[in-house]
Fold Anaphase-promoting complex subunit 4 WD40 domain-containing protein.
Amino acid sequence: MEISASGSAIYLVDPLAAQRLREHAISTDRSSRVFRELWSLNGRTYTAYRSLLGNPASLRSSSAHAPHAGELSETRLNMSSNTRKYTFHGVKLICDESRVAVTIVRFANIRNDLLAFGNLDGDLWVIRFPPEDDISMAADSGSSAPSSSTTKPYRRSGLGPLVSKMPKAHVRAISSLDWSFDNSQLMSVGEDGMLCIWDAGGGQFPGTVQLKCQVSGAFQKDLKVSAVEVSNHHIFAGDSAGFIHILRCEMQGGQLHRLLWQMKLSVLRAQKAPVIHLEFVPFCRATDTPILLSNSRDGTVSLVKVQEKMNRLEIHSWCNMPDTSRDIRAAVCPLSVIQDAPRIVMGAEDSSVYILHLAPGAGQKANIVNTLKGHRAPVAAVSFAFDESLLSSGDSAGTLIVWRRSSNV
């Protein structure tokens, strides 16, 4: 395959070399990985772009600027995706604003300085982190951050995170949070059947409730919707019997006209148990398609292959986690699905946070990649920032911890 790099220079690259060069390009800037994932041009997607670069060809160059074989071999060694590790070097924030269990936490899209979390009583907070440069400049000027690990002294000094509590809207636990594409709005869904849209006001918090509506949760008698996720063209709904439904969005005049049910897929190992969480990922290298993370109340964690053009769902891998006395929601490690095998992060009853690798196949045991210990209560909610620089986790005692990931991985 011919690739014109600089006008007259034309390179013919084999698939392995192209793969290593791509890995090197995206490893220099974490944010670029997500932007490339969302890349589109004339209706084409990142999948088509990646396939274009992956066509087989021999390695040679018609230009004097081509890399030498020895340099390329050395680069292959240093850029192996199998050496990726999830190591952390401290804590950015410990927040104890909530007095009851944290049930959900969510970072904003393509940002690591903004996150929201909700609790068992239906309370909602938004945390905004200042730029690292601002903290450094304050430290250089003689200001010192207080020794307390909670957020309140930081708010008084103006040097640290700003924690804002939103007006009361839910009367029961918040079960789902999602940001709009530009992070101007935040959606919260509670177990009271209430859906609220919050206006971020360009990042000014607390926001205001723009819309309240009752969520209808029944496909049929005695069957209720227990989890919802969306993509550009579909809505995925988990129900109380352990099935995932895929519904195609039909548009008319630029507005949603109706939802067309396509199929359902069981993600349970045996008995009926509600699907408690769904997370859509636009692209996964292991499947070459979008994937859907699902976890159920019986401890089943699944990665589902989504074939959007065919309106089909297919289980890629699943494992059985230990039974728990509470709903524990997992999350996808966002960069792992782009560069290597999918990994997930999940809390546990033993107060730990686990980063796990799910091997392809049915009922495979999850391999532990790393374990984080710092909570004093069972961890029920986790969320990675888009570039994996920060990981947030909330426990049943109401404590939220934001972990810093090592930058040299």
